[in-house]
Design a protein that fits this description.
With 290 residues, the protein is mainly β. The chain has one helix and 15 strands, in the order αβββββββββββββββ. It has one domain. Strands 1, 2, 3, 4, 5, 6, 7, 9, 11, 12, 14 and 15 form a twelve-stranded mixed beta sheet that branches. A three-stranded antiparallel beta sheet has the order 8-10-13, with no helix packed on it. A hairpin with a 5-residue loop joins strand 4 and strand 5.
Length: 290
């Protein structure tokens, strides 16, 4: 009985070895086939860019010599595609479309040959870029991309924040780790209202774990943010690079979304803070006018 079991075990061991050898040989043959397949030569070069901006600007109007402040919100989307042949010559007359569920629009060629553009607003979601180079109804290239639809949730435009540091939070479409985020904090006030701090930083995506996340402005600072009126610029970036394609198209691009607003840091004079009701003189912070 023991002898029979031993023989069966040896036969099974040999069989497994043969199977592994066959698998290794098959994998080696497949790798050789892949290496033997010629890569498609680059016929066209497509450079695709989307820039979305949302800005909050305070406008001052004088009514009977009394200043009235109001916030103006502007949202602008700029979409462009430059299309060239491998030798660098422009491709004119192409049909370029962007499609998504229930939405389709074309990019039109402007004054410059090979440059196609549109200003159609794009919300956060998945889209397809279709390129028909010679206009015969057949797409030579198709590329999928995502618009982040970034939404800054804090701080709000006109909010008062601590000069010892304050939080930044936002939401995006899809996986938040697919994008890069940066913020900048610049002086926005005039004269005695002007703060002294100027901050720029790239937010480390590897440190983020939630789609809605918070980053403290003072996390990497050695000193506090000085009092003042500041312009906050928050940017979400998605890089589009797909050069190893089978259709002979070298594709590259970037999607950028920028939110631009103003915030108050610390205590500043009421008269120079256009988020407060206007006043003739500032009694709360008299030293501001010295």
């Amino acid at each position: 009985m023991k002898k029979t079991s031993l023989i069966l075990f040896l036969l099974l061991f040999v069989l497994i070895g043969c199977v592994k050898q066959q698998d290794a040989e098959q994998l080696e043959m497949e790798n050789k086939d892949l290496q033997a397949q010629p890569r498609a030569e680059i016929e066209y070069k497509a450079n695709f860019n989307i820039l979305k901006t949302k800005s909050y600007k305070v406008k001052t109007e004088y009514v009977y010599n009394t200043p009235k402040h109001r916030t103006e919100i502007k949202e602008i989307t700029s979409i462009s595609l430059s299309l060239d042949k491998a030798d660098g010559s422009d491709i004119s007359g192409a049909v370029v479309k962007i499609k998504s569920d229930g939405q389709e629009f074309s990019l039109s060629e402007g004054l410059f040959p090979g440059l196609y553009s549109s200003e159609v607003g794009l919300s956060g979601g998945e889209y397809n870029l279709l390129i028909d180079v010679d206009g015969d109804g057949k797409n030579e290239a198709e590329e999928s991309f995502i618009v982040p639809g970034s939404e800054l949730t804090a701080p709000e435009h006109g909010s008062k924040n601590s000069n010892s540091g304050f939080g930044l939070s936002w939401q995006v479409f899809g996986d938040f780790k697919d994008y890069q985020y940066t913020y900048s904090l610049f002086n926005a006030g005039d004269g005695y209202c002007r703060g002294k701090s100027s901050l720029q930083d790239i937010i480390k995506v590897k440190d983020l774990f939630e789609p809605t996340t918070t980053v403290e402005f003072n996390q990497s600072l050695e000193k506090e943010i000085t009092d003042g009126l500041y312009q906050l610029m928050f940017k979400t970036i998605e890089y589009l690079n797909d050069s190893n394609r089978a259709d002979g198209v070298q594709f590259a691009g970037v999607v950028q979304e920028i939110t631009d607003l103003e915030v108050v840091v610390g205590n500043i004079c009421q008269c120079c803070n256009h988020f407060e009701p206007p006043c003739d003189q500032d009694l709360e912070y008299p030293n501001c006018h010295k």
